[in-house]
User: Fold this.
Amino acid sequence: MNSPTPSTAPATALDRIFRPRGVAIVGASSDPQKRGYQAIAALRQAAFAGGIHPVNPKGGEIRGLPVATSIAAIEGDVDLALVCTPAPTVPRVLAECAERGIAGAVVVALGFGEAGPDGEELERQLRRVVAETGIRVIGPNTSGILNPHRGLNLIGVQDVPAGRIALVSQSGNVSLQLMIESMRRSRVGFSTVIGVGNEIDLRFDEYLDWLGDEPNTAAIALYVEGFRRGQKFLETAAEVTTKKPVILLKGGRSVRGKAAARSHTGALAGSFPVFRAGLKQSGVILVRRSDELLHVAESLASQPARGSYRGVAVLTDGGGHGTLATDALHYHLQVGLGELSGDCAAPRCRRNSSSKSRRATRSISPAPPTPIRWCSPRPSTC
Assistant:
């Protein structure tokens, strides 16, 4: 299950967060209905190889693990904390995590910027702690994170297959839908799943930059309602899309959708036409529906990065579907259609069939007057 470290360079904060030596579960509980119990169970079920450190002032034992009475009392290496305590306690907990040397924290609590003035004040307190201590924070109001290659399951969904697609999402329900879809399909798996939550610290552009060099990731899928740093995201995307494809689904396109996004995660959704133009310039592929996101990411995961294409060819056993595919590529996606080499161009396909079969194939699938070439897969070796 473990995967190789990408290099011998010193580990960054995000390296330590997504490949932790140990995880502290702050607010651990013996109640199976509580997140502080479910997280421990999920890590054990996923065979997480690092240390699991429950923290609760009452002490004791949970699922055979000793419970530390404080963050300072944790024994062993710990790089990441899952904070399961109520919102008002989170600033203090983060300060204690930073003092212990923990690189990052995943904060699942609700009741911050999405909840009105009192929650906004709590968010300001969190930002002060981050600025003063340097601890990195995912969330708050996050569904959690997942690295199936290492058994790091702080989302709770079991048996999500490991694979090459990274998912970064501003919605826990969208992430859940895509994870369930991946479990129903044998070819789709995830390298990383990240619920960004309210982004009081770590932002989309930072996740994107880290995933650009993450060795288990071949394609990056994003669900976005709004950006805190839109220009920085576009600049980062322009660099990352030269290495691997980035596919994005946008929520909050309409006036009502923007209002829903604001109440959901506190996200600020800007002008969609301007946003769409920026994405195109940065090489990001925009999809329109949630059921397209995983399919497109899977298809592009095995393809060359942006700038490496020499065109797309369509292989078909009938002219009609080839024409529709050509329209979709050229008109809707603005994808270039490539010239096939002499050996694979339809009029010169190497065929083991009779001349009668060759004449039939050409009559069914004639070459249209575009750069594409039609070639029937059944009688040829193209």
